[in-house]
Amino acid sequence: MQVQDKVLQVVLPTPLRQWFDYLYPQSLDPAADIAAEVPQVGKRVRVSFGRRELIGLVVGVSDQTEVPREKLKPVLAVLDETPLLSEAMLAWLLWVARYYHQGPGECVLSALPTLLRQGQPIEPEHPPHWQLTDKGLKMTAAGMGRAVKQWRLIELLRLDPAGLPMSVLRAHGFERDVCRRLQEKGLAHEVDVIPKGEGVGLPDLQHHTPVSVHKDVLAESPLTLNAPQREAVDCVISRLGQFAPAVLLGVTGSGKTEVYLQVIERVLAQGQQALVLVPEIGLTPQTVARFRQRFAREVVLLHSGLNDRERLAAWRAASEGKADIVIGTRSAVFTPLRRPGVIIVDEEHDASFKQQDGFRYHARDLALVRAQREQVPIMLGSATPSLETLAQVERGHCTLLRLPDRAAATRTPPVPQLLDIRNRRLQGGFSVPLLEAMQRHLDRGRQVLVVLNRRGFAPVLMCHACGWVAGCQHCDARMTWHREPPRLHCHHCGHRQPLPDVCPQCGEAELLPLGAGTERGEEILAARFPDVPIIRIDRDSVRGKDRLQEKLADIHAGHPALLIGTQMLAKGHHFPQVTLAAVVDADHGLYSSDPRAMERMAQLLTQVAGRAGREAHAGEVIIQTHHSDDPRLNLLCQSGYEVLAQQLLRERRESHWPPYSHQALWRAEAPKPEAAQALMQALADAAQQQPVVANGSVFCLGPVPAPMERRQGRYHVQLLMQADKRSVLHQLLATLVPWLEKLPEARRARWSLDVDPIELL
Ligand SMILES: [Zn+2]
Ligand SMILES: [Zn+2]
Ligand SMILES: [Zn+2]
To answer: Where, in this chain's numbering, is Zn(2+) 1 bound (predicted)?
Structure first.
């Protein structure tokens, strides 16, 4: 095979599960290009695709193609001077696409910020310049003979003895191949241009040079570690440069962040970078502030609040190695790092690490694989590790580093008290004993924290005269009643409508709230405690940039106050003046069809309990339930999360449920229920033909209507596949996905595949 026959393998922004072959661009001679070892892999290209032009990324160069030669089109343009993604990063991204059975384009391109996906040029800050050599300066037109284009380039370069960057030459119609011909003749060369006063050269993906090693790492002195913290830090830094997963188990106040900081200090001192994943940056301003305070290095944040320009700048700082610490939410796991040194996933149990639509990846799981490929240690921090992570510890794949509660040395943490509310009168969900307990703590000048895990005023609007309830016209769901601003809101599809004045069914004006959300809880508490400031924290109340910070500042002022909110309130914050923490309703975790509900409820209760009596004052924790005799709830209160988690793991093992088996959930949706049902039935039938299903290695459960069958005006049907061996399941999926893609009936319903689902909705 000739080099001229080489094709570029390009991934494009389409959901199709394949890459596309293109010829080298006409301006580029493949033979010269390959001889000069110019890397094309990792660069963006513009190509024509159908009738459109798309921006894609080269993921491979091959001399094999299944497309007839004459049908191949050349790439229209190569957009980058140097690869944007290293080959190692690309290999990982392609693995991710295979693992989740996603199109490689969607997956690989998700590692690029929007502006780069749109084809915006990326200029190195100090691009190398083409410069004439002495021989080139003396060259004459006659000496160049018939190489007219090369002569014109010499004339252009002569105007600027310091040289010109490729972008300028290109604007004059010269491509790199002309430059290279001058180089071969010894007439021109490419030189690095380094501005005065800057000792740092151009970033180069191929070499791992510690560019910023000489700058100071610390801006302030580290804190003194206690023995368990010291042990944790030593354990991780003794394994820098190798894959070493560790769970850092400790409640808020056990000093997890200081462990992260001191591990990162060592990583930076070695000239490497740290990637820190957090559930939600807006919720952890204190943590981010501590990183910035500690280090004299650039810390960049990647989160949904950035505009496209800011995102590109942060991405470049990370991938070119200028930023030493990259802190980001879920999608930051795809950020390329030039000198990766450690990955940290804080609050690793948090469900926000799983993307729940489109490309459904789990950032914690991907971080583990990435750490393994990059041979760096990874720390998973949590007070309530996920059962998946605890199972990894049990299997010996992950080191458990336990940080005891420092406050517990002087004071026993409170045992949560189960308050049975069977047959008790409730005022918007609050029982009299709970309200009395609040009064006691407020009278002592303390703060009270109440978690009510529902937004809005009331989850249901009901007519007292005829029993009509406000349902969503698009979903099998009730509309939530909001007061600010007044509206009905479906939390499943986002549909909003004005509040009716009278019942649409009977015409009476007796519309009542049923149950309570945080807005109503706030109203009831305000009536009961008129002199106490009430601070509500939920997704609705903290909209707008600085609202949450303002509210947190109010709380930290330390006066008596009531804090009411959703589980947002329980995440990561430190409230030293809170002495009573209460959960209004613990029941929906106990009797749910979702096998993960108990794990989540236990995590929430543990986090809420951790809010009470953090400092000098003794705390109290009250949990309202209709099932105070529930054995698991009692085990949690008496023995703590770890002991309950061990029991939940035993239950999961006995029922062959993850993490002791592997699942994939197929979903189909269509305007008509029959279409979705028929597609999933066809899939189930096709699966039955496969030996691994026939012999029972893979179980198929379904197809069944989704727990909420009608959502956004479409009917949802699902099919669950489960196997003890991951590889067996994935082989089956790899057979079924292309089959389904080609199935004509598949066009009548939209389908998706969720590998390792965490919600069966
Ligand atoms: Zn009515
Ligand atoms: Zn709402
Ligand atoms: Zn709806």
So the answer is: 463, 466, 503, 506
